[in-house]
Design a protein that fits this description.
By secondary structure, the chain is of the alpha/beta class. Helix content is 39%, strand content 18%. A hairpin with a 5-residue loop joins strand 11 and strand 12. It is globular and about 65 Å long.
């Protein structure tokens, strides 16, 4: 398969659009540009691709509304600007998508939301519920409450982590340059655009070491390469493309050779399973009956509570547990959908009966197959 076909054939994409492409040089949002982006995103959406939009622009829009000419340096001023600007940013996206009869959803995240396993699963469940409904989630960092200690740092990184979160096939980072060059094109007129490379190729580091930052944005090419490597951990490709290229998203959808395509070393499923296997140490054990062992080994299916004999250890929702047979032999490990107390209460319980035991249902599966690796 031609590597560009990965883009046109993607079933789920995270698209990040930076401040420089959404604003009139800091003088508020560029409504004509938003119209252009939404028309292209909807062409992809109508073709069957699920889209998560990571949008910058809240601080820039807030600056415009408050009459500030320069990006604030103090944290409380940035937070205030983001709080004001977020209102206009989301309203603008909602109006544009409503032209196509499509609903949007605002999702504000902090680093803590994706590092805490319970909140990680909560965010994942919300996004994965919205996407099949045809809703376009619009994700941004929660700048109003975030501090330096828990800041993603830039929306390129946020986009990569969201790609991991929703198990996207790819991440598209739109920027004010046409892609990644072998040297800085602002200083070297002979700089050549890199069309394709491996995200983990160490030679990329030297190429982006001199990358600068825009007046409104917080990242350069270094952050985009770093984001591509984060996305590659779960097998997603990254396309870095010029947002000022006419119809750039449509060209990418058609398989045209736009921008720089950074590829993962492993396929999406293999990479995610490898990440799960090595990412967390186990916090407890689920002892399975023979039927559940057979289903996991032969069927590649999720683990349901009905197949669990007993629960061992103390763990929270979203932590790693070991799934063992009655002789203690490990069969699999994965991220559990309930804490140890809840899991013990639904042991041997059919999925449709969970609500009777707990009074609610978090997930039908005790460990979903996407969050599990056989050992």
């Amino acid at each position: 398969m031609n590597e560009r076909e990965r883009i046109s054939g993607a079933r789920r994409l995270v698209v990040k659009i930076g401040s420089a492409l959404l604003t009139n040089d800091g003088r508020g949002l560029a409504s004509a540009e938003l119209t252009r982006w939404v028309d292209q995103l909807m062409a992809w959406h109508r073709a069957g691709t699920e889209i998560v939009l990571v949008s910058s622009g809240a601080v820039a829009e807030g600056m415009s509304r408050l009459g500030w000419k320069q990006r604030p340096e103090h944290e409380h001023e940035l937070q205030a600007s983001a709080a004001v600007g977020q209102m206009g940013l989301i309203q603008a996206w909602e109006v544009q998508f409503q032209r196509h009869g499509t609903h949007t959803a605002q999702v504000l995240l902090t680093h803590d939301d994706l590092s805490d396993r319970k909140r990680y699963l909560n965010a994942r469940s919300t996004l994965r519920t919205l996407l099949p409904l045809g809703v376009i989630p619009i994700v941004n960092e929660n700048d109003t409450v975030v501090t330096d200690e828990i800041r993603f740092g830039d929306n390129d990184t946020l986009g990569a982590l969201v790609a991991n979160l929703v198990e996207a096939d790819g991440l598209i980072l739109l920027t004010d340059q046409e892609g990644l060059y072998d040297s800085d094109p602002r200083h070297n007129p002979k700089a050549e655009l890199i069309r394709e490379a491996r995200a983990n190729d160490e030679r990329l580091d030297a190429m982006v070491s001199g990358g600068g930052r825009g007046a409104l944005g917080s990242g350069g090419m270094q952050t985009k390469v770093r984001a591509a490597r984060l996305a590659a951990r779960s097998g997603a490709f990254t396309l870095i493309a010029g947002g000022k290229v006419s119809d750039v998203l449509e060209l990418a959808r058609q398989g045209s050779e736009v921008g720089t395509l950074l590829l993962p070393d492993k396929e999406r499923l293999d990479a995610r399973k490898q990440w799960l296997a090595g990412h967390l140490r186990t916090r407890g054990r689920l002892v399975l009956d023979p039927g559940a062992v057979r289903v996991l080994r032969e069927g590649g299916r999720s683990l349901l509570s009905v197949g669990v004999r007993r629960v061992e250890g103390d763990f929270r929702r979203g932590e790693m547990v070991s799934c063992v047979d009655e002789q203690g032999v490990e069969i699999a490990r994965g991220l559990v959908s309930y804490d140890s107390t809840e899991a013990a209460r639904i042991t041997g319980c059919a999925s449709e009966k969970i609500v009777e035991r707990l009074g609610y249902v978090s997930e039908e599966e005790l460990v979903h197959r996407d969050n599990m690796v056989l050992v």
